[in-house]
Structure to design on (113 residues):
């Protein structure tokens, strides 16, 4: 059984909605989208704070737990979907191949460089 994943907020009640979704199922994909949307929103907020260049180290430290959680979620989403990437197609940049290799446990793919 999978751990409950955050799906979003019920607009009628304002309550958080969590699901135990079957891997690869529709609810799992919705949870993936929710994770990516939350990470993108957090990125926008933190980027704006950093660009303003007025926050103290203590104020920036407040973001660390949320950033760590969001990164963990995004890595989980990437790890699930990276398995769908064909290994024999050289269509990925160097950074993408390095991320794929890291997520797969460091197995280098010599076919794509």
């Amino acid at each position: 059984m999978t751990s409950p994943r955050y799906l979003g907020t019920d607009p009628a009640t304002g309550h958080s909605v969590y699901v135990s979704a079957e891997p690869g199922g529709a609810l799992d994909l919705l949870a993936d989208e929710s994770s990516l949307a939350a990470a993108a929103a957090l990125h926008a907020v933190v980027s704006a704070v950093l660009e303003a260049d007025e926050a103290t180290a203590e104020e920036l430290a407040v973001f660390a737990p949320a950033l760590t959680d969001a990164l963990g979620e995004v890595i989980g989403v990437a790890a699930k979907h990276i398995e769908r990437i064909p290994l024999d197609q050289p269509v990925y940049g160097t950074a993408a191949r390095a991320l794929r290799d890291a997520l797969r446990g460091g197995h280098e793919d010599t076919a794509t460089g």
In short: Residues 5-63 form one domain. The mean pLDDT is 82.
